[in-house]
Design a protein that fits this description.
CATH topology of the largest domain: Double Stranded RNA Binding Domain
Number of helices: 11
Largest sheet: 3 strands, antiparallel
Strand content: 15-25%
Number of strands: 7
Structural class: alpha+beta
Length: about 230
């Protein structure tokens, strides 16, 4: 007895169903996001992307990252490199003038995470909002002490005193400038040139001058010849 003839449409339908099952199985295998001890664990970069897409529309996501899953994904990936959880990353990392930056206290937190920060001290001297007002930040890492000072006169020479954050929060801005620089110096392997948000907001980005020489068009030159 010969094999029964199966209609071609039935075969196509079976193939479609089989392909869907394979795709669903692959998706389940690829996505391996786990929650262990209150922390999200990702097994691959695609897991981070799936997670980012899932939270991108949430009102709890910072406005800079709302509806931007690709930005969230890179932010989380960068944060994981620094030892930050996904939500710590979104709260601590921001893009200013095209560069990822850390909010002020995130730098100190990352230095503390290394377990090598032995001492951190902030000292102010001089009269507030005068040229002799200065903030000194001192950091001690593995027996080596680093220090950096930032003064009111430095902010004045940098043209920062008219900015809103310097008018309203001068002391905090002074402390941030002094501490950010010394933390980057003492923990260069941790920050690798990543600046604080406050520093990047202060950096002036003027439009570059156009130094291209003006060249008359061929049509204009021909018209000039005809006039002569």
């Amino acid at each position: 007895m010969g094999n029964p003839i199966v209609p071609i449409e039935d075969i196509k339908q079976e193939v479609i169903v089989a392909e869907k099952k394979v795709e669903e199985k692959a998706k389940k295998q690829d996505t391996q996001i786990a929650l262990e001890d209150g922390k999200f664990i990702f097994k691959s970069f695609s897991d981070i992307m799936v997670f980012s897409k899932a939270i991108a529309s949430s009102n709890l996501v910072p406005s800079d990252y709302k509806e931007k899953p690709a930005d969230i994904c890179l932010c989380i990936a960068m944060g994981l490199e620094k030892g930050l959880s996904p939500f710590q990353s979104m709260l601590s990392i921001s893009v200013i003038k095209g560069r990822p930056c850390l909010w002020g206290n995130a730098q100190l937190a990352l230095a503390q995470k290394t377990g090598e920060l032995e001492n951190y001290k902030i000292e102010f001297s001089g009269e507030r909002k005068t040229d002799n007002w200065e903030c000194k930040a001192t950091v001690k890492r593995k027996g080596i002490e680093w220090s950096n000072s930032y003064g009111w006169i430095d902010a004045k020479e940098g043209g920062l005193l008219g900015k809103d954050n310097w008018i309203k929060s001068a002391k905090a801005m002074m402390e941030n400038r002094a501490s950010s620089a010394v933390l980057r110096r003492a923990f260069s392997d941790v920050f690798c040139g990543v600046y604080s948000v406050e520093e990047m907001e202060d950096i002036s980005q003027e439009e570059p001058l156009n130094v291209t020489p003006k060249v008359a068009s061929l049509e204009a030159l021909n018209n000039k010849k005809e006039e002569n």
